[in-house]
Amino acid sequence: MTSLLVIVVLVLLAVAVWQLTKIFDLTQVGGLRDNSQIANDKDNNVNGYLMFGFLVFIYITMIYCVAKFGHLPLMSNPASEHGTDVDNLMWISMILIFIVQIITQALLHYFSFKYRGKQGQKALYFADNDKLEFIWTIIPVIVLAGLILYGLYAWTNIMFVDEDEDVIVVELYAKQFSWEARYSGEDNVLGKANVRYIKGVNTTGVDVTDPNAQDDRVTNELHLPKGKKILFKMRSQDVLHSAYMPHFRAQMNCVPGMVTQFAFTPTKTTSEMRQHPDIVEKVAHINELRAKKSQELIAKGETALDPYTFDFLLLCNKICGASHYNMQMKIVVEDEKDFNAWMKEQPTLVSAVKAENAPEETEVVGPTAPIKDSAHAATGVPTIPTAR
Ligand SMILES: [Cu+2]
């Protein structure tokens, strides 16, 4: 309501100023003032110098933004093998854009000034110039072709997964508004899945009767071993999501009804990343802001904020609904030994389903035990093959 009142007051003020200028103009009628609608030399000079003023404004804004916000884009210290390629591509593109815009803006504003209108001066009729046109066409063609070819080369390299390569297959399951990870287990093949199988603890809709699903493990935290290639298979339960792992320079859409994939090799563990100077500086800055906010909260009698520690995150990068902003999952990168130890502690999905369906007194048996509630297996629901 306050904002509406402020807007109304501003509009009324603008109308009042406009009316006042009209009255002022009327009082000047008959004076020595030039009332012609055609620009004279003075007008053209003013506009010419304003062009220069605008150029200076653009440059100052640019320098200010680079100095103040330049540290925000993730363009150094990637945590994946291919991350360096993405960063290089980004650096080359940004530097080229920077140089080109500095030169073209200067030329544009300089010529606008130089050829500003002058009394009695006529514009020169200039039909065309093949040499000039050739130069300003061929330079962008060469630069853009180089950028596109380099980009395509980098993209093909990043997306290529050798079928015989030793990779760990992990499924990322997206839904409004959380993530789940499904590990393919010892056989490294994911069991079939379909949204119609979702029931109780089987939140990812895995066909628990599928032999490949017997050793699948579903977790709410994504653990990855350092130095091992991970092949992610993405699925979505409801709408379009996007699996975004910024520190690994990885992103892929999660589309309902199909499986998409992305593979990368983590090169830094979470604890190594926490010790990196860039991250140490960022964390210190965030905690400074949090400490200030905590003081305000304490003054209001509320609880203070916890200090922040760095963690890799899997985020959703498609606006998928009201809580999209909070759709994230923690990623822990660790040494292979720690990863294997963690993996051993995770129960298989089949054993969890069995425990859920078993009578209270029955104990959970091995992961390959037959499934009691396999009624859905006979429903003939088509499954999405998620195996490699
Ligand atoms: Cu989402």
Please give a handful of descriptors for the protein shown.
388 residues, alpha+beta, five-stranded mixed β-sheet, elongated, binds copper (II) ion, transport
Provide an overview of this structure.
The protein has about 400 residues and is an alpha+beta fold. Helix content is about 45%, strand content about 15%. The chain has helices at about 1-25, 40-70, 85-115, 130-160, 270-275, 275-300, 335-345, 350-355, and strands spanning about 165-175, 180-185, 215-220, 220-225, 230-235, 240-245, 250-255, 260-265, 310-315, 330-335. The chain has a five-stranded mixed sheet with strand order 3-2-1-5-8, with no helix packed on it. The protein has a five-stranded mixed sheet with strand order 4-10-9-6-7, with helices on one face. A hairpin with a 4-residue loop joins strand 6 and strand 7 (about 250-255). The longest helix has about 30 residues, at about 85-115. It is elongated and about 100 Å long. It binds copper (II) ion. Copper (II) ion binds near residues 241, 320, 324 and 327. The site of copper (II) ion (CU) has 7 residues, from loops. It catalyses: 4 Fe(II)-[cytochrome c] + O2 + 8 H(+)(in) = 4 Fe(III)-[cytochrome c] + 2 H2O + 4 H(+)(out). It is an enzyme of class 7 (translocase). Its EC number is 7.1.1.9. It is found in: Cell membrane; Membrane. Its cofactor is Cu cation.
